[in-house]
Amino acid sequence: MKRKSEVYMKWIFFIVLLVPLTCSANWFGPKTYEDCIIQGMKGTTSNVAAQEIKKACRIKFPTPPKPKAKTQKITGHAANQALNNLRLSSAPNYFGRSDTDHKVEFHNPLEMWVTSITIEVRINDNEPIFYKTSANVKPLATGIAYFGIGLSEKSKITAWRVHEIDVSDQDPRVF
Question: Is this structure's pTM higher than 0.85?
Answer without folding.
Answer: no
